[in-house]
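Entry 14. Ran structure prediction on the chain below.
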Amino acid sequence: MANLISWLRIPFLASSGLAALGSGLLYWKQNEIIYPRNLPLGARTEEGVPRPDRFGISDYEDVRFPTPDGETLSAFFIRPSNKRIAKKLTILMFHGNAGNIGHRVPIAKVLEEHIGCNVFMLEYRGYGLSTGTPDEDGINIDAQTALDYIRHQEETRNDKIIVYGESIGGACAIRLVANNQDAGDMLGLVLLNTFTSIRKLIPSAFPPAKYIAFMCHQYWNSEEVLPEITKVPILFMSGLRDEIVPPSHMKELYASCRTTKKIWRDFPNGTHNETLAQPYFFDYIVHFVRELFGGQSMEARI
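Output, structure tokens:
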């Protein structure tokens, strides 16, 4: 677990340092601030995207696929290493606002080993080896394109899908599930340390800019979208020492949730970086999936 944290700390430390930037930059350079895709240094180079085989994963594909608006997205498709517990399930994974999918491979490794699922790790436009420039509309297109890709591949077309989103990836996941909940393949949604909206996050994440938050044109209004989800179970996972996204944001999202099944798990010592290193973090996810999948075999406690 310590090795996992060492890989995840780099991109999130880059995110937390953004609070020092001035108010004027929020308006003129807000996309650079909200989507620091070049951090850490080299994050958009071949050498700066760690591949799954670096973490002992051999059964995976390095995928490229086009979006409807002309970008080319990168992704890792990781298959379950434990074939004994393999099942028709794919976790679609959306990462936070810095770094790239390579920094999150250790998370995918734990999930595929203990759940027996595929993990599809999407790289947003402008991040890692994907083309383009990120913004809210574009990332939402990327998310839908990734879901459509999974649905149309022979290997995964009949899979149930769980969407996992951390921080800004949680906002992306909420929108995607809200738009696709009637299709019948959305099994569940896992949210980690996400926020109600960017504008409401600014006073804590970018204190110098709190008086001009109204100028922010990247909305990510999860507090408005989440109540639209009524058919997909949701697992809320909140670090109570999160220094970037105040835990009150997750509590507000949970309170507004109107879906058929919602579960709250909090971690008293969980920061924005290290909630997933807290005791029982992955056990809670495994238990959530087991319940949704009808008690099928999975690995014991992590």
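The CA atoms of residues 212 and 251 lie 25 Å apart. Will compare against last week's run tomorrow.
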